[in-house]
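Residues determine shape. We examine one folded chain.
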Amino acid sequence: MRIAAAQINVTVGDLEGNRARIAESLRRAKAREADMVVFPELAVCGYPPEDLLLKDHFVRDNIKVLRSLASETKGIVAVVGFADTDGKGRLYNAAAIIGDGRVKSVYRKEALPNYGVFDEKRYFCSGRRNKNFVLDGVQVGVSICEDMWVEKGPWLRQARRGAKLLINLSSSPYEVGKLKEREKLLRKRAAQTKSFVCYVNLVGGQDELVFDGSSMVFDSAGKMIASGKQFEEDLVIVDLPIGRLKQKRPIENRCAASFSQDERIYRALVLGTRDYAKKNGFQKAVLGLSGGIDSALVAAVATDALGKENVIGVTMPSRYTSQGTKKDARKLAGNLGIRLIEAPIEKMFKVYLNELKGLWRGTKAGLAEENLQARIRGNILMALSNKFGWLVLTTGNKSEVAVGYCTLYGDMTGGFAVIKDVPKTKIYDLARLKNAREGNMIPASILKRAPTAELKAHQKDQDSLPPYGLLDEMLKEYVEHRWPLAKMARRRDRALIKNIIGMVDRSEYKRRQAPPGIKITPRAFGKDWRLPITNCYKER
Protein backbone atom coordinates (compact mmCIF):
# COMPACT_ATOMS: atom_id res chain seq x y z
CA MET A 1 0.00 0.00 0.00
CA ARG A 2 1.30 3.45 -0.88
CA ILE A 3 0.21 6.29 1.36
CA ALA A 4 0.88 10.02 1.24
CA ALA A 5 1.12 12.34 4.24
CA ALA A 6 0.22 15.87 3.16
CA GLN A 7 1.49 18.38 5.73
CA ILE A 8 0.04 21.61 4.44
CA ASN A 9 -0.10 25.23 5.60
CA VAL A 10 -3.73 26.27 5.89
CA THR A 11 -5.30 29.46 7.25
CA VAL A 12 -8.14 29.60 9.76
CA GLY A 13 -11.34 30.60 7.98
CA ASP A 14 -9.91 30.55 4.46
CA LEU A 15 -12.21 27.74 3.35
CA GLU A 16 -11.70 28.14 -0.39
CA GLY A 17 -7.97 28.68 -0.06
CA ASN A 18 -7.65 25.62 2.15
CA ARG A 19 -9.74 23.62 -0.32
CA ALA A 20 -7.37 24.58 -3.12
CA ARG A 21 -4.36 23.44 -1.05
CA ILE A 22 -6.02 20.13 -0.26
CA ALA A 23 -7.05 19.57 -3.87
CA GLU A 24 -3.52 20.32 -5.11
CA SER A 25 -2.05 17.80 -2.67
CA LEU A 26 -4.64 15.25 -3.83
CA ARG A 27 -3.55 15.72 -7.42
CA ARG A 28 0.12 15.39 -6.48
CA ALA A 29 -0.56 12.25 -4.46
CA LYS A 30 -2.46 10.68 -7.38
CA ALA A 31 0.40 11.55 -9.71
CA ARG A 32 2.69 9.64 -7.35
CA GLU A 33 0.27 6.67 -7.50
CA ALA A 34 -0.70 6.85 -3.82
CA ASP A 35 -3.60 4.70 -2.64
CA MET A 36 -4.42 7.10 0.17
CA VAL A 37 -3.52 10.65 1.18
CA VAL A 38 -3.92 11.93 4.73
CA PHE A 39 -4.31 15.57 5.78
CA PRO A 40 -3.92 17.33 9.15
CA GLU A 41 -6.55 17.89 11.82
CA LEU A 42 -9.27 20.42 10.83
CA ALA A 43 -7.51 21.05 7.52
CA VAL A 44 -10.67 22.39 5.88
CA CYS A 45 -11.38 25.16 8.38
CA GLY A 46 -7.90 25.66 9.85
CA TYR A 47 -6.71 25.15 13.41
CA PRO A 48 -7.69 26.46 15.90
CA PRO A 49 -10.92 28.01 14.56
CA GLU A 50 -11.93 29.11 18.07
CA ASP A 51 -15.26 30.97 18.24
CA LEU A 52 -15.81 30.77 14.50
CA LEU A 53 -17.21 27.38 15.48
CA LEU A 54 -20.04 29.16 17.31
CA LYS A 55 -21.26 30.49 13.95
CA ASP A 56 -23.60 27.90 12.45
CA HIS A 57 -23.04 29.24 8.92
CA PHE A 58 -19.27 28.82 9.27
CA VAL A 59 -19.69 25.16 10.21
CA ARG A 60 -22.14 24.62 7.33
CA ASP A 61 -19.76 26.25 4.85
CA ASN A 62 -16.85 24.10 6.00
CA ILE A 63 -18.98 20.97 5.48
CA LYS A 64 -19.91 22.13 1.98
CA VAL A 65 -16.23 22.53 1.14
CA LEU A 66 -15.48 19.09 2.56
CA ARG A 67 -18.18 17.50 0.41
CA SER A 68 -16.99 19.36 -2.68
CA LEU A 69 -13.62 17.65 -2.33
CA ALA A 70 -15.26 14.28 -3.02
CA SER A 71 -15.10 14.97 -6.75
CA GLU A 72 -11.27 15.07 -6.49
CA THR A 73 -10.99 11.51 -5.10
CA LYS A 74 -11.44 9.33 -8.15
CA GLY A 75 -8.85 6.58 -7.85
CA ILE A 76 -7.62 7.60 -4.40
CA VAL A 77 -8.84 7.71 -0.80
CA ALA A 78 -8.42 10.92 1.22
CA VAL A 79 -8.66 11.37 4.99
CA VAL A 80 -9.46 15.02 5.64
CA GLY A 81 -9.95 16.91 8.92
CA PHE A 82 -13.03 19.15 9.24
CA ALA A 83 -15.65 20.38 11.74
CA ASP A 84 -18.71 18.12 11.71
CA THR A 85 -22.20 18.41 13.20
CA ASP A 86 -24.95 15.91 13.91
CA GLY A 87 -27.70 18.39 13.08
CA LYS A 88 -28.76 18.54 16.74
CA GLY A 89 -26.47 21.35 17.79
CA ARG A 90 -23.53 19.08 18.62
CA LEU A 91 -20.15 19.77 16.98
CA TYR A 92 -17.30 17.33 16.43
CA ASN A 93 -13.65 17.57 15.52
CA ALA A 94 -13.80 15.04 12.70
CA ALA A 95 -12.02 13.28 9.86
CA ALA A 96 -13.82 12.31 6.68
CA ILE A 97 -12.78 9.24 4.71
CA ILE A 98 -13.48 10.17 1.08
CA GLY A 99 -13.16 8.02 -2.01
CA ASP A 100 -14.81 7.26 -5.33
CA GLY A 101 -16.47 10.66 -5.34
CA ARG A 102 -18.25 10.40 -1.98
CA VAL A 103 -17.81 10.63 1.77
CA LYS A 104 -17.60 6.99 2.85
CA SER A 105 -17.21 7.39 6.58
CA VAL A 106 -16.52 9.93 9.32
CA TYR A 107 -14.39 9.56 12.43
CA ARG A 108 -15.17 11.90 15.35
CA LYS A 109 -12.39 12.75 17.81
CA GLU A 110 -12.87 11.12 21.18
CA ALA A 111 -10.25 12.70 23.46
CA LEU A 112 -10.70 16.48 23.61
CA PRO A 113 -7.73 18.42 25.07
CA ASN A 114 -8.68 21.24 27.40
CA TYR A 115 -5.36 22.47 28.79
CA GLY A 116 -2.64 24.91 27.77
CA VAL A 117 -3.56 26.45 24.41
CA PHE A 118 -6.35 23.92 23.82
CA ASP A 119 -10.04 24.72 24.46
CA GLU A 120 -11.75 21.90 22.58
CA LYS A 121 -14.37 21.12 25.21
CA ARG A 122 -15.70 24.65 24.73
CA TYR A 123 -16.77 23.68 21.22
CA PHE A 124 -16.78 19.95 20.56
CA CYS A 125 -18.49 16.83 21.83
CA SER A 126 -16.59 13.55 22.09
CA GLY A 127 -17.10 11.04 19.29
CA ARG A 128 -18.63 7.64 19.97
CA ARG A 129 -19.02 4.33 18.11
CA ASN A 130 -16.11 4.97 15.74
CA LYS A 131 -15.19 2.06 13.48
CA ASN A 132 -12.21 0.98 11.40
CA PHE A 133 -12.40 1.25 7.62
CA VAL A 134 -10.97 -1.07 5.00
CA LEU A 135 -8.62 -0.11 2.16
CA ASP A 136 -7.19 -2.72 -0.23
CA GLY A 137 -8.31 -5.41 2.17
CA VAL A 138 -6.44 -3.81 5.11
CA GLN A 139 -8.21 -2.54 8.22
CA VAL A 140 -7.24 1.05 8.96
CA GLY A 141 -7.84 2.95 12.20
CA VAL A 142 -8.22 6.73 12.18
CA SER A 143 -7.67 8.96 15.20
CA ILE A 144 -7.14 12.68 15.76
CA CYS A 145 -4.24 14.22 17.69
CA GLU A 146 -5.00 13.80 21.43
CA ASP A 147 -6.60 10.40 20.78
CA MET A 148 -3.12 8.96 20.27
CA TRP A 149 -1.78 10.43 23.53
CA VAL A 150 -4.39 8.77 25.73
CA GLU A 151 -3.41 5.43 27.24
CA LYS A 152 -5.90 2.76 26.17
CA GLY A 153 -7.36 5.26 23.72
CA PRO A 154 -9.11 4.54 20.41
CA TRP A 155 -5.81 3.46 18.82
CA LEU A 156 -5.76 0.38 21.09
CA ARG A 157 -9.35 -0.54 20.33
CA GLN A 158 -8.68 -0.17 16.61
CA ALA A 159 -5.64 -2.44 16.76
CA ARG A 160 -7.55 -5.05 18.71
CA ARG A 161 -10.19 -5.01 15.99
CA GLY A 162 -7.52 -5.85 13.44
CA ALA A 163 -6.16 -2.51 12.21
CA LYS A 164 -2.75 -2.93 10.60
CA LEU A 165 -2.39 0.79 9.89
CA LEU A 166 -3.11 3.53 12.45
CA ILE A 167 -3.53 7.04 11.05
CA ASN A 168 -3.39 10.11 13.26
CA LEU A 169 -4.39 13.55 11.97
CA SER A 170 -2.78 16.25 14.09
CA SER A 171 -2.44 19.98 14.60
CA SER A 172 0.25 19.92 17.27
CA PRO A 173 1.93 23.28 17.95
CA TYR A 174 5.69 23.55 18.19
CA GLU A 175 7.40 24.01 21.53
CA VAL A 176 10.90 23.18 22.72
CA GLY A 177 11.27 19.43 23.23
CA LYS A 178 7.89 18.50 21.72
CA LEU A 179 9.28 16.73 18.65
CA LYS A 180 11.12 14.16 20.74
CA GLU A 181 7.99 13.58 22.85
CA ARG A 182 5.92 12.91 19.74
CA GLU A 183 8.49 10.57 18.25
CA LYS A 184 8.80 8.61 21.50
CA LEU A 185 5.02 8.26 21.80
CA LEU A 186 4.43 7.18 18.20
CA ARG A 187 7.27 4.70 18.32
CA LYS A 188 5.72 3.25 21.46
CA ARG A 189 2.23 3.00 19.91
CA ALA A 190 3.57 1.18 16.85
CA ALA A 191 5.46 -1.31 18.99
CA GLN A 192 2.49 -1.80 21.34
CA THR A 193 0.06 -2.62 18.54
CA LYS A 194 2.42 -4.21 15.98
CA SER A 195 0.79 -1.82 13.49
CA PHE A 196 2.14 0.76 11.08
CA VAL A 197 1.57 4.31 12.35
CA CYS A 198 1.17 7.34 10.09
CA TYR A 199 1.16 10.71 11.87
CA VAL A 200 0.36 13.82 9.80
CA ASN A 201 0.90 17.24 11.36
CA LEU A 202 -0.07 20.75 10.30
CA VAL A 203 2.60 23.28 9.35
CA GLY A 204 2.50 27.08 9.48
CA GLY A 205 1.81 30.02 11.80
CA GLN A 206 -1.57 30.89 13.29
CA ASP A 207 -1.52 33.91 15.61
CA GLU A 208 0.83 32.92 18.44
CA LEU A 209 1.03 29.25 17.50
CA VAL A 210 3.51 27.72 15.06
CA PHE A 211 2.96 24.22 13.69
CA ASP A 212 6.18 22.52 12.71
CA GLY A 213 5.03 19.73 10.39
CA SER A 214 7.51 16.90 11.07
CA SER A 215 5.02 14.22 10.02
CA MET A 216 6.23 10.68 10.73
CA VAL A 217 5.61 7.08 9.64
CA PHE A 218 6.67 4.09 11.76
CA ASP A 219 6.75 0.42 10.89
CA SER A 220 5.15 -2.29 13.01
CA ALA A 221 8.35 -2.69 15.06
CA GLY A 222 8.43 0.99 16.03
CA LYS A 223 11.14 2.08 13.58
CA MET A 224 10.72 5.42 11.82
CA ILE A 225 10.69 4.76 8.08
CA ALA A 226 9.74 8.21 6.76
CA SER A 227 9.35 11.77 8.01
CA GLY A 228 8.33 15.15 6.68
CA LYS A 229 10.30 18.38 6.62
CA GLN A 230 10.38 20.64 9.66
CA PHE A 231 8.61 24.02 9.32
CA GLU A 232 7.89 23.49 5.61
CA GLU A 233 5.06 22.06 3.57
CA ASP A 234 5.78 18.56 2.38
CA LEU A 235 4.19 15.53 0.74
CA VAL A 236 5.66 12.38 2.22
CA ILE A 237 5.16 9.26 0.09
CA VAL A 238 5.77 5.87 1.68
CA ASP A 239 5.27 2.26 0.59
CA LEU A 240 3.99 -0.11 3.27
CA PRO A 241 4.17 -3.91 2.84
CA ILE A 242 0.44 -4.37 3.47
CA GLY A 243 -2.60 -4.60 1.20
CA ARG A 244 -2.89 -5.81 -2.36
CA LEU A 245 0.26 -5.57 -4.43
CA LYS A 246 0.11 -3.18 -7.37
CA GLN A 247 2.63 -2.44 -10.09
CA LYS A 248 3.92 1.04 -9.26
CA ARG A 249 6.93 3.14 -9.96
CA PRO A 250 9.42 2.47 -7.16
CA ILE A 251 9.98 5.12 -4.50
CA GLU A 252 12.52 5.40 -1.71
CA ASN A 253 11.09 6.03 1.74
CA ARG A 254 12.97 8.96 3.21
CA CYS A 255 13.40 10.77 6.49
CA ALA A 256 13.81 14.53 6.28
CA ALA A 257 16.81 16.30 7.77
CA SER A 258 16.58 17.23 11.44
CA PHE A 259 17.87 20.39 13.13
CA SER A 260 19.37 21.37 16.47
CA GLN A 261 17.08 22.75 19.15
CA ASP A 262 18.23 26.34 18.56
CA GLU A 263 17.79 25.94 14.80
CA ARG A 264 14.22 24.73 15.37
CA ILE A 265 13.48 27.72 17.60
CA TYR A 266 14.87 30.11 15.00
CA ARG A 267 12.88 28.48 12.21
CA ALA A 268 9.73 28.66 14.35
CA LEU A 269 10.26 32.41 14.80
CA VAL A 270 10.79 32.91 11.06
CA LEU A 271 7.74 30.86 10.06
CA GLY A 272 5.54 32.46 12.70
CA THR A 273 6.56 35.97 11.65
CA ARG A 274 6.17 35.25 7.93
CA ASP A 275 2.72 33.71 8.28
CA TYR A 276 1.41 36.35 10.71
CA ALA A 277 2.39 39.11 8.29
CA LYS A 278 1.29 37.30 5.13
CA LYS A 279 -2.01 35.94 6.45
CA ASN A 280 -2.97 39.35 7.86
CA GLY A 281 -2.18 41.23 4.67
CA PHE A 282 1.16 42.87 5.54
CA GLN A 283 4.00 42.96 3.04
CA LYS A 284 6.46 45.06 5.03
CA ALA A 285 7.47 45.29 8.67
CA VAL A 286 9.11 48.03 10.72
CA LEU A 287 10.92 47.91 14.04
CA GLY A 288 13.01 50.11 16.26
CA LEU A 289 16.74 49.39 16.05
CA SER A 290 18.34 50.34 19.37
CA GLY A 291 21.73 48.79 18.76
CA GLY A 292 20.89 46.12 21.35
CA ILE A 293 20.69 42.35 21.10
CA ASP A 294 16.88 42.03 21.14
CA SER A 295 16.16 44.35 18.22
CA ALA A 296 19.12 42.83 16.36
CA LEU A 297 17.64 39.33 16.58
CA VAL A 298 14.14 40.52 15.63
CA ALA A 299 15.58 42.33 12.61
CA ALA A 300 17.42 39.17 11.55
CA VAL A 301 14.30 37.01 11.94
CA ALA A 302 12.15 39.54 10.06
CA THR A 303 14.66 39.70 7.21
CA ASP A 304 14.67 35.91 6.87
CA ALA A 305 10.87 35.84 7.09
CA LEU A 306 9.93 38.68 4.75
CA GLY A 307 13.03 39.48 2.69
CA LYS A 308 15.44 42.36 3.27
CA GLU A 309 13.52 44.61 0.89
CA ASN A 310 10.46 44.35 3.15
CA VAL A 311 12.05 45.23 6.50
CA ILE A 312 12.62 48.78 7.74
CA GLY A 313 14.68 49.60 10.81
CA VAL A 314 14.23 52.89 12.64
CA THR A 315 16.94 54.24 14.91
CA MET A 316 15.62 56.85 17.36
CA PRO A 317 18.54 58.15 19.44
CA SER A 318 18.11 60.35 22.48
CA ARG A 319 20.50 62.27 24.75
CA TYR A 320 21.29 58.97 26.48
CA THR A 321 22.08 56.94 23.36
CA SER A 322 25.76 56.06 23.17
CA GLN A 323 27.88 56.38 20.07
CA GLY A 324 28.42 52.62 20.23
CA THR A 325 24.75 51.72 19.98
CA LYS A 326 24.20 54.27 17.22
CA LYS A 327 27.07 52.76 15.26
CA ASP A 328 25.87 49.20 15.84
CA ALA A 329 22.34 49.98 14.66
CA ARG A 330 23.74 51.32 11.39
CA LYS A 331 26.16 48.42 11.01
CA LEU A 332 23.44 45.84 11.66
CA ALA A 333 21.14 47.40 9.07
CA GLY A 334 23.98 47.39 6.56
CA ASN A 335 24.84 43.76 7.26
CA LEU A 336 21.22 42.67 6.84
CA GLY A 337 20.70 44.89 3.81
CA ILE A 338 17.57 46.53 5.24
CA ARG A 339 16.50 50.15 4.94
CA LEU A 340 17.40 52.31 7.95
CA ILE A 341 15.50 55.47 8.94
CA GLU A 342 17.04 57.85 11.47
CA ALA A 343 14.53 59.74 13.61
CA PRO A 344 16.18 61.42 16.62
CA ILE A 345 13.74 62.06 19.49
CA GLU A 346 15.61 64.78 21.40
CA LYS A 347 13.54 67.73 20.09
CA MET A 348 10.24 65.94 20.80
CA PHE A 349 11.48 64.89 24.24
CA LYS A 350 12.32 68.53 25.10
CA VAL A 351 8.86 69.68 23.98
CA TYR A 352 7.19 67.07 26.18
CA LEU A 353 9.35 68.00 29.17
CA ASN A 354 8.59 71.69 28.70
CA GLU A 355 4.84 71.13 28.33
CA LEU A 356 4.72 68.85 31.38
CA LYS A 357 6.96 71.04 33.53
CA GLY A 358 4.04 72.73 35.24
CA LEU A 359 2.20 69.50 35.93
CA TRP A 360 5.34 67.87 37.31
CA ARG A 361 6.43 70.87 39.43
CA GLY A 362 8.02 69.83 42.71
CA THR A 363 8.84 66.25 41.61
CA LYS A 364 12.15 64.56 40.93
CA ALA A 365 13.08 63.22 37.52
CA GLY A 366 12.61 59.45 37.37
CA LEU A 367 10.63 56.67 35.73
CA ALA A 368 8.08 58.99 34.08
CA GLU A 369 10.82 60.81 32.18
CA GLU A 370 12.46 57.51 31.22
CA ASN A 371 9.26 55.97 29.91
CA LEU A 372 8.33 59.14 28.05
CA GLN A 373 11.22 58.46 25.66
CA ALA A 374 10.01 54.91 25.00
CA ARG A 375 6.49 56.23 24.31
CA ILE A 376 7.77 58.83 21.86
CA ARG A 377 9.50 56.01 19.99
CA GLY A 378 6.33 53.94 20.03
CA ASN A 379 4.40 56.88 18.54
CA ILE A 380 6.93 57.26 15.74
CA LEU A 381 6.73 53.58 14.81
CA MET A 382 2.93 53.60 14.84
CA ALA A 383 2.86 56.78 12.76
CA LEU A 384 5.00 55.06 10.13
CA SER A 385 2.73 52.03 10.32
CA ASN A 386 -0.40 54.13 9.79
CA LYS A 387 1.13 56.12 6.95
CA PHE A 388 2.67 53.25 4.98
CA GLY A 389 0.79 50.14 6.12
CA TRP A 390 3.81 48.52 7.76
CA LEU A 391 3.49 45.94 10.53
CA VAL A 392 5.25 47.10 13.71
CA LEU A 393 7.33 44.35 15.33
CA THR A 394 8.05 44.72 19.03
CA THR A 395 11.39 43.63 20.43
CA GLY A 396 10.71 42.66 24.06
CA ASN A 397 11.87 39.23 25.23
CA LYS A 398 10.19 36.85 27.70
CA SER A 399 12.43 37.81 30.62
CA GLU A 400 11.49 41.49 30.33
CA VAL A 401 7.80 40.85 29.64
CA ALA A 402 7.63 38.49 32.63
CA VAL A 403 8.78 41.03 35.22
CA GLY A 404 7.34 44.14 33.54
CA TYR A 405 10.72 45.57 32.54
CA CYS A 406 9.08 47.19 29.53
CA THR A 407 7.01 50.28 28.84
CA LEU A 408 3.30 50.05 28.13
CA TYR A 409 2.53 52.16 25.01
CA GLY A 410 6.30 52.44 24.51
CA ASP A 411 8.52 49.53 23.52
CA MET A 412 5.47 47.25 23.90
CA THR A 413 3.69 49.14 21.12
CA GLY A 414 3.20 47.14 17.94
CA GLY A 415 1.29 44.49 16.05
CA PHE A 416 3.40 41.36 16.63
CA ALA A 417 5.87 40.36 19.34
CA VAL A 418 8.41 38.11 17.66
CA ILE A 419 10.52 37.15 20.70
CA LYS A 420 7.84 37.51 23.39
CA ASP A 421 8.39 33.89 24.50
CA VAL A 422 12.18 33.78 24.12
CA PRO A 423 14.17 34.19 27.37
CA LYS A 424 17.02 36.70 27.32
CA THR A 425 19.73 34.04 27.61
CA LYS A 426 18.27 32.20 24.60
CA ILE A 427 18.34 35.46 22.59
CA TYR A 428 22.13 35.34 22.72
CA ASP A 429 22.18 31.68 21.65
CA LEU A 430 20.01 32.45 18.61
CA ALA A 431 22.11 35.47 17.67
CA ARG A 432 25.25 33.32 17.77
CA LEU A 433 23.48 30.70 15.65
CA LYS A 434 22.67 33.35 13.05
CA ASN A 435 26.28 34.52 13.02
CA ALA A 436 27.71 31.02 12.80
CA ARG A 437 25.42 30.26 9.88
CA GLU A 438 25.88 33.49 7.93
CA GLY A 439 29.11 35.10 9.07
CA ASN A 440 28.69 37.63 11.89
CA MET A 441 25.62 39.43 10.62
CA ILE A 442 25.01 40.68 14.17
CA PRO A 443 28.03 42.79 15.22
CA ALA A 444 30.17 41.26 17.99
CA SER A 445 29.93 44.50 19.97
CA ILE A 446 26.17 43.98 20.32
CA LEU A 447 26.74 40.52 21.77
CA LYS A 448 29.39 41.80 24.20
CA ARG A 449 27.64 44.96 25.42
CA ALA A 450 25.88 44.83 28.81
CA PRO A 451 22.09 45.08 28.21
CA THR A 452 20.75 48.61 28.69
CA ALA A 453 17.56 50.50 27.92
CA GLU A 454 19.52 53.78 27.63
CA LEU A 455 16.69 55.82 29.14
CA LYS A 456 18.97 57.53 31.68
CA ALA A 457 22.69 58.07 32.10
CA HIS A 458 24.86 54.98 32.75
CA GLN A 459 21.81 52.72 32.91
CA LYS A 460 22.19 48.93 32.89
CA ASP A 461 19.44 46.28 33.07
CA GLN A 462 21.24 44.67 35.97
CA ASP A 463 20.67 47.84 38.04
CA SER A 464 17.02 46.75 38.34
CA LEU A 465 17.15 42.99 37.70
CA PRO A 466 19.22 39.98 38.76
CA PRO A 467 21.69 38.66 36.17
CA TYR A 468 19.67 37.25 33.28
CA GLY A 469 21.03 33.73 33.74
CA LEU A 470 19.65 33.66 37.28
CA LEU A 471 16.43 35.48 36.35
CA ASP A 472 15.67 33.05 33.52
CA GLU A 473 16.13 30.08 35.83
CA MET A 474 13.64 31.53 38.32
CA LEU A 475 11.15 32.45 35.63
CA LYS A 476 11.27 28.94 34.18
CA GLU A 477 10.51 27.51 37.62
CA TYR A 478 7.67 29.94 38.39
CA VAL A 479 6.09 30.52 34.97
CA GLU A 480 6.63 27.24 33.12
CA HIS A 481 6.81 24.73 36.00
CA ARG A 482 4.43 26.56 38.40
CA TRP A 483 6.74 26.01 41.36
CA PRO A 484 5.62 27.62 44.65
CA LEU A 485 7.81 30.07 46.55
CA ALA A 486 8.73 27.46 49.16
CA LYS A 487 10.14 25.07 46.56
CA MET A 488 12.05 27.80 44.74
CA ALA A 489 13.50 29.04 48.03
CA ARG A 490 15.26 25.73 48.62
CA ARG A 491 17.75 26.68 45.92
CA ARG A 492 18.31 30.43 46.41
CA ASP A 493 17.54 33.56 48.41
CA ARG A 494 13.90 33.70 49.53
CA ALA A 495 13.63 37.51 49.50
CA LEU A 496 14.93 37.66 45.92
CA ILE A 497 12.47 35.01 44.74
CA LYS A 498 9.57 36.71 46.51
CA ASN A 499 10.44 39.98 44.78
CA ILE A 500 10.61 38.35 41.33
CA ILE A 501 7.29 36.56 41.87
CA GLY A 502 5.74 39.88 42.87
CA MET A 503 7.09 41.56 39.75
CA VAL A 504 5.61 38.82 37.54
CA ASP A 505 2.19 38.98 39.20
CA ARG A 506 1.99 42.79 39.23
CA SER A 507 2.84 43.02 35.53
CA GLU A 508 -0.19 41.11 34.29
CA TYR A 509 -2.00 44.33 33.34
CA LYS A 510 0.85 45.13 30.95
CA ARG A 511 0.95 41.69 29.35
CA ARG A 512 -2.80 41.69 28.82
CA GLN A 513 -2.39 44.75 26.58
CA ALA A 514 0.61 43.44 24.67
CA PRO A 515 0.48 42.20 21.05
CA PRO A 516 0.47 38.45 20.35
CA GLY A 517 3.79 36.72 20.01
CA ILE A 518 5.20 33.34 18.97
CA LYS A 519 4.95 30.53 21.52
CA ILE A 520 8.07 28.35 21.80
CA THR A 521 8.05 27.23 25.46
CA PRO A 522 5.66 24.91 27.30
CA ARG A 523 3.96 27.95 28.89
CA ALA A 524 3.94 31.29 27.15
CA PHE A 525 2.31 34.60 28.08
CA GLY A 526 -0.69 34.11 25.82
CA LYS A 527 -3.40 31.50 25.35
CA ASP A 528 -1.93 29.20 28.01
CA TRP A 529 -1.37 31.92 30.66
CA ARG A 530 -4.51 33.25 32.35
CA LEU A 531 -3.46 34.99 35.53
CA PRO A 532 -6.07 37.48 36.77
CA ILE A 533 -5.13 41.15 36.56
CA THR A 534 -6.77 41.90 39.90
CA ASN A 535 -4.96 39.41 42.11
CA CYS A 536 -4.42 39.79 45.85
CA TYR A 537 -2.96 36.32 46.45
CA LYS A 538 0.53 36.52 47.89
CA GLU A 539 2.77 33.58 48.75
CA ARG A 540 4.41 33.75 52.17
In short: The first strand starts at residue 2 and ends at 7. The chain is about 35% helix and 20% strand. The chain has two domains: 2-258, 263-461. The CA atoms of residues 207 and 276 lie 6 Å apart.
